[in-house]
Amino acid sequence: METKQKKNKFKIFKIIAIICVVILIIESLYLLIQYQKREQQRIYTDTASSFVVADDSYYIVGSSDFKNTVIGYQDGYQKAKFVKYSKDGKVEWIKAYTKGYNSIYNDVCKVNDGYIVVGHYEKTEQDHKENTGPGIIVKYDLKGNIVYEKEELILADTQFTKVKALKDGGYITFGQSIFENMTLGVDDRGGAIMIRYDKDGKEVWRTNFGGSKSGIFLDAYIDEDENAVYVVGKDASKYGVFGKYNLDGEKIFIKNYYPTDSIGFSSIDKIGDNFVVVGSKKLTEDKEDYHTQALFIEYSPNGEILLEKTYKKNEMSRFNHVMVQDNKIYVVGHSASLNEEKTTEALREFDYSGIYIAFDQKGKIIHSYEYKEKDADTYFSKILMDHKKWIITGQSNTKLFGMNKKDMHSFLIEINEKGKLQNQIF
């Protein structure tokens, strides 16, 4: 009798165990389905590198996986994007560069009959494996149709970072061409590059500065009346560059500044007869970009430093872009504070926020604004004036899914003259 009761109890326990296993399987399947649905809905990366204001609209370039657009998903690759937004943030049209593997548009400028966009793409499977490839130039008409496209491959990895329009309808591109990693050798064609094209996209001249493993031009100010092109960027590691060329591509001078972060000087504008450049100043000798202060320097036309100002907020700070208006200096960038709870011995975790600051001509802060989306890292990339309001673009990367740099979306915000957030355009 006792043995029979034990058998019955064992059967009951067995049935309960089977039911529990079934429940676990069902719950696991449910969670898997929900996870897959979430993955399909997620925007892995949508960035805004640069923009222009024209024809009462915003024209933005960057990259996207296009999961959230009518274009569709491109098999996991990031594709260069060119988007026209209305002033209220509605998409009027969107274009993607679909050739090759990953691609990005880094800058855009307006010319008389359209827009010139520049960037980089992985053309071949080998390029994709090594994250290399040619630089690209695409001309769009005013309706977003491609007029022509060009690619440039000097050394193994070429990218265009900036493009500036000229009065004759032509333009000058700036960027870098270097060997891929682990490649030995010297080639005097590489480093920071500058190429001038006429209005039809035909090359006029080219020049370069630096070695085949370093050197990059990140921005420029062109003064056609003075026959001058002022450039900023990076030479070797931690060396910012401020230089002057004429419109025939002949170098007048190059000035180095030490120590910067790994990016160097990223933006330039003119103030009076002088020039303001921005970046980040390194405070320690380690190789990482920790312990930095945001930096702006005023240079004379001859390359003399007239004023140097740093801005420290948290462990890392950087100014990414500068604009001068009415002898005031407006900068945007980001700062980062160490997240001690999430930091481990193997990896440091930082929390990023976008920063906007207005300085007077002597470097005194007039007002400032910090922008951060909830549970996200936020970065400002560019600032432009539009009808007495500052328009700032950037991107925000959510941390809800961990430190995977996924779910990054671009945004456009409006700051009023008092330095306050007035509108989130999108």
Please characterize this protein's 3D structure.
The chain has a single domain (67-424), classed as 7 Propeller (Methylamine Dehydrogenase, Chain H), CATH 2.130.10. By secondary structure, the protein is mainly beta. The longest helix is centred in the first third of the chain and has 40 residues, at 2-41. The termini are far apart. Strands 1-2-3-4 form a 4-stranded antiparallel sheet, with no helix packed on it. A 4-stranded antiparallel sheet has the order 5-6-7-8, with no helix packed on it. Helix content is 11%, strand content 52%. It is globular. It has helices at 2-41, 125-130, and strands at 46-54, 57-64, 79-86, 91-97, 103-111, 114-121, 135-141, 146-152, 157-165, 171-178, 191-197, 203-209, 216-223, 228-234, 240-245, 251-257, 267-271, 274-282, 292-299, 305-311, 316-325, 328-338, 350-359, 365-371, 376-386, 389-398, 408-415, 421-424.
Report, as a whole number of angstroms, the end-to-end distance: 76 Å
Structural class: mainly beta
Count of alpha and pi helical runs: 2
Task: Spell out the CATH superfamily.
Answer: YVTN repeat-like/Quinoprotein amine dehydrogenase
How many distinct domains?
A: 1
